[in-house]
Design brief:
Length: about 525
């Protein structure tokens, strides 16, 4: 038997969009003796398997995948289905995708159609359809059941689709008959490029593996190899930017749908994505992308992470997360070696979860919604001190004056001996205590005060603050104030520090002080 020419037929159909070529693609795809692995029993896992298969498998397997998706759609809610079809709408044009979307819209495959799901199906027909699909919609799609805006969208789509004409010649009738009469075999599957990346996903910290991959990709003429080589060598930033502009979204893989590409774009390091900000997406959409292999090289998430997964083997700084995400991390016993995590929760609730993590973070940030967290924090501190490997603590509160009061009431004796840095922040200032490593007893601290208020503090507020903290007798004081703070305030700070016999350095920040990362 001869290998089925699915790719050649798809190229011909994309050039002309003849329904007769579409019929050939459907016939050949349905005839091939393909057996796919069964979908996982869990709905979210099944959705991920379908999406990954349709995005990365050869074109001749798509017919079998779409049959799987049809069966999946009959028993699944629209909440899980619409992200799948949103991703399908972005794939290269293929009439088989439009056929399934049309069957769902006209009711041949019974599903619950929400407005969002309907829009995604219409997107699929627009991207992947030809005249046969638009005529089926004209006959069987109940426009009267839609809201006015969605109905108008559907009418415009039908008008454009029915008015369009094939852009090229049709395959000759004799050739079509020959293709229909031939018995086809399953094409041989070449080793996909994605499999070359498996060593990187398994150990993202091994730079040598990245260099080997770069060499292989360069031999294949793949520009990704050039980009990896340039970043490893720290060469030609201009060329790196050009390659990222052209291919960056593609290289993000499934992450492109859930990370911020505009306001806080991803950062690439050593050829792979390393720092991202997760945008506000629905949980179902994030779950579909959470196991993508591209997560392996991400070392820092600036914010928005909704769930941890086994794919995040290189994650060090998780950024602000909800307590529920940490609870799932503990429940799933994922062996992630996080360096830092920030969580908004009551101290005792946070410690309950942290104690159950397979590997607790070394740097921990807690944000308090209550006005005065002193009592709750005092109860949790002995358990915090028992967390293995804890090196840094950050406590923040929404109200002003909370952190100086916290120090005044509790002193420094509560700080675990192995903790070397403590950050205390409220809406007006950031207080940073660094343990002086050179002292024998480890009790001496350097103190830094950073103005984060708007507008900046006046002389009185700084004097009051130093009066509250003077008993700390730190080894040194560093004051970071904004340029807008007047000279009188700075002089008052310096004078107060001298009265307490504290060596003081005043640093002027230009503009609004940036967010201080770990």
């Amino acid at each position: 038997m001869t290998e089925a020419p699915i790719d050649e037929l798809l190229a011909q159909w994309r050039a002309a969009r003849h329904p007769s070529t579409s019929a050939l693609i459907h016939h050949l795809g349905g005839q091939l003796p393909v057996e796919l692995p069964r979908l996982p029993p869990k709905k979210t896992d099944a959705a991920k398997a379908l999406l990954e298969g349709m995005k990365h498998e050869p074109a001749f397997l798509l017919s079998a995948r779409l049959r799987q998706l049809e069966g999946f759609a009959r028993t699944t809610s629209a909440t899980l289905l619409w992200p799948l079809f949103e991703a399908l709408a972005k794939l290269p044009a293929d009439p088989r995708i439009a056929t399934l979307a049309t069957q769902l819209l006209v009711g041949e495959v019974e599903v619950a159609l929400t407005s969002k799901f309907t829009r995604r199906l219409l997107d699929c027909v627009e991207q992947h359809g030809d005249d046969s699909h638009f005529r089926s919609l004209e006959l069987g799609f109940a426009l009267n059941l839609l809201d006015d805006g969605l109905a108008a969208r559907a009418v415009r789509l039908l008008q454009r689709g029915l008015a369009a004409r094939p852009a090229g010649p049709e395959l000759p009738l004799a050739e079509r008959k020959r293709l229909l009469a031939t018995k086809w075999d399953v094409p041989a599957v070449p080793l996909p490029v994605d499999s070359l990346f498996a060593p990187i996903w398994a150990d993202p910290r091994d730079v040598g593996r990245r260099q080997v991959l770069a060499d292989v990709l360069l031999e294949r003429g793949d520009v990704r190899g050039e980009f990896i080589s340039l970043q490893l060598a720290g060469a030609s930033p201009k060329r790196q930017r050009a390659l990222l502009k052209a291919h960056g979204r593609e290289w993000l893989g499934a992450l492109a749908g859930v990370v911020d590409l505009k306001d806080q774009p991803p950062l690439f390091e050593r050829g792979f994505v390393a720092v991202v900000s997760v945008k506000g997406v629905r949980q179902a959409q994030f779950l579909l992308a959470s196991d993508a292999p591209e997560w392996a090289t991400v070392r820092r998430v600036r914010g928005g992470l909704q769930r941890f997964s086994r794919a995040m083997v290189g994650l060090e700084d998780a950024g602000p997360v909800k307590l529920a995400a940490l609870e799932a991390l503990a429940r799933d016993a994922l062996p992630l070696k996080l360096r830092s995590v920030d969580v908004a929760a009551f101290p005792d609730e946070a410690v309950d979860v942290l104690e159950r993590l397979a590997v607790p973070p070394r740097w921990l940030g807690l944000h308090f919604g209550v006005f005065d967290p002193t009592r709750e924090l005092r109860d949790a501190l002995p358990r915090l001190a028992d967390l293995p490997g804890l090196e840094r603590l950050r406590f923040s509160a929404e109200a002003a004056e909370v952190m100086p009061a916290l120090l005044g009431q509790m002193g420094l004796e509560w700080i675990p001996r192995h903790v070397t840095r403590v950050e205390l922040r409220d809406e007006e200032r950031l207080i940073i205590l660094e343990r002086e490593q050179r002292t024998r007893d480890g009790r001496a601290w350097s103190l830094e005060l950073v103005d984060v208020s708007d507008p900046g503090p006046d002389a009185g507020s700084w004097k009051d603050l130093l009066a509250e903290l003077g008993w700390l007798t730190p080894s040194s004081v560093r004051l970071s104030v904004r340029a807008e703070v007047d000279d009188e305030a700075v002089r008052a700070v310096e004078d107060r520090a001298r009265r307490f016999k504290l060596p003081v350095t005043v640093v002027t920040l230009e503009g609004v002080p940036p967010e201080l990362a770990w």
